[in-house]
Amino acid sequence: MALHCGKTCRQYLLHLAHDSVDFRLPELKALLALRGRQCDPSEAFREKSPFWRLCGLLEEDVRSVMSRTVCGKSAFELWGHGRTAAELKSSLLEYPIEKMTPFLQEESTYKINVYTFNKTLLFKDRIEKIDALGFLPFKGKVSLKDPDHIFCLLEDYGLDPNDIPEEPFHIYFGRWVADGQRELIRSHSVKKRHFIGNTSMDAGLSFIMANHAKVKAHDLVYDPFVGTGSLLVACSHFGAYVCGTDIDYNTIHGVGKASRKNQKWRGPDENIRANLRQYGTESFYVDVMVSDASKPVWRKGALFDAIITDPPYGIRESTRRTGSHKEIVSPPEDFSGESHVPVSMAYHLSDIFADLLNFAAHHLVMGGRLVYWLPIYRPEYCEEMVPLHPCLSVISNCEQTLSSHTSRRLITMEKIKEPEKSDVLAHLADSRFSPYQGHNSFREKYFSGITKKNGKGSERTCLDKV
Amino acid sequence: MIQNSGRSGCLNTEGEVHATEVKVNEVEFNPQFVSRMIPKLEWSALIQAAEGVGHRQDLPDTLVSNYENDEDFLHKVHRVLLEVEVIEGSLQCPESGREFPISKGVPNMLLNEDES
């Protein structure tokens, strides 16, 4: 399947929402991979545009993508396109009439929408544009309410809201096929969720993560830093069975101080299972445990189809693990004293990622994916910061900016080979497999950026990290 | 669900499950999921755990062949995997004898300072 090929094959137009821009292409690629389809962007492909032309796909492929995508707004069977109204017209006249007629029947009803990106048109202009399509052999009746077929004229006025052209850069016309799942962003909003924590993942991003991980029905998905289970909610929505662990007893049991503004303590219906119940996916709840991710308790072997997680960055949730050490960290203030919490010690960020990748290499099925967030101090970012493992291949790396000096990157990795004994020594042969130690001072860098007026950290380069 | 887990130190052995309170929920049966889970389980450990909580019923000692098409069998596995839940009890590591408590359906696998 190609993106923006010049061939005269059947094409579909994907109209994308203009947010989480970096996350869109990996999402599409993952969803097409679920259909066994490859995705090859051609040179003409402009990733930042809200309109992508897809060719080499069947309508079932497109419907399947739209049943999952949170980045895609709508998909259309593309009948014509061009850089001017004249080009659009000749393109439409070239479209095989026998492909049009099934949808233009006399007994059917239809309507034509006009959508303009980066420009607002007057009502009369929109009517004019619809009228200009009168040369098309529409035989049916117009019905604005519940028509049999919906067509759309889409115009692209560029990406610069401060420089809107008189005429669009590109115009498309097509038959509407399906809408994406952006409604999930509203229906699963964390604002209305029964059980939330300080760092519960926003609904849109949690569905994007599930898509990047190629989660599918009957999969078993695991989150080793499950918190309030936001990622499990998203995965269960796509039919996966879910389990999670967290070191924090209070969060797993749903007790202690609440994260909501007006609420003091957590109520009885606040736990991960209740969250799944809220959205009707309780039957996909497998188990949660209180457990330390640095000391996994799982049986050896490939258990999980996907591991999806948001490890603590040490900012709003502390990074800790169990252990005996001279360096003792006292339990958090919201500890309600219900059970003995073993001594906490610092869990360095670089170790979190090394442990996570190692765990994934051992416990993912072949071809299974690990999707996790990596906190980044932007002034120092270089590719070497992204952890590597001999058994995992990096599929994508998408940045979400958090502030001028920090961001987080959604890393997707896929298991490509089973671990061997020699992998333990991989870092000796190849320094890329050594944990990047610069992550450990992320917390200091995060706060130093906030207190310093200019917000700029040190000028160190990546070479200093070795 | 009765989780089959072992301490990171124990390679092949599985923990014993003791239960003082067990609940049986009704969970929608999904034969495809159960089919896919079976190869990931250690069958003897599952039997032992099911026996430990008094819900073995008539699960066989060894895994039947061609289980993917045996809906009756899959239903029995579904029951112990997803419907039988240990609410209060413990998981015991056979090597060290260490017991991990299960409270309100949630196992607590954290080791104390002197144990790691």
UniProtKB/TrEMBL annotation, chain A:
Q: Where is this protein localized, as stated in its record?
A: Cytoplasm
| Superkingdom of origin organism | Eukaryota
Sorted UniProt keywords:
Cytoplasm, Methyltransferase, RNA-binding, S-adenosyl-L-methionine, Transferase, tRNA processing, tRNA-binding
Which residue intervals define the domain tRNA (guanine(10)-N(2))-methyltransferase TRMT11 N-terminal in the entry? Answer: 11-182
Pfam families named among the record's database cross-references: Tmrp11_N, UPF0020
Q: Which part of the chain is the Ribosomal RNA large subunit methyltransferase K/L-like methyltransferase domain?
A: 192-322
**From the Swiss-Prot or TrEMBL record, what is one GO molecular function term?**
tRNA binding
Q: What is its EC number?
A: 2.1.1.214
Q: What does this protein do?
A: Catalytic subunit of the TRMT11-TRM112 methyltransferase complex, that specifically mediates the S-adenosyl-L-methionine-dependent N(2)-methylation of guanosine nucleotide at position 10 (m2G10) in tRNAs. This is one of the major tRNA (guanine-N(2))-methyltransferases.
Q: Please describe the quaternary structure of this protein.
A: Part of the heterodimeric TRMT11-TRM112 methyltransferase complex; this complex forms an active tRNA methyltransferase, where TRMT112 acts as an activator of the catalytic subunit TRMT11.
Spell out the family assignment given in the record's similarity comment. Answer: Belongs to the class I-like SAM-binding methyltransferase superfamily. TRM11 methyltransferase family.
Q: What is this protein called?
A: tRNA (guanine(10)-N(2))-methyltransferase TRMT11
Q: Which organism is it from?
A: Pygocentrus nattereri (Red-bellied piranha)
Top-down, what is the taxonomic lineage of the species of origin? Eukaryota, Metazoa, Chordata, Craniata, Vertebrata
Q: Which gene encodes it?
A: TRMT11
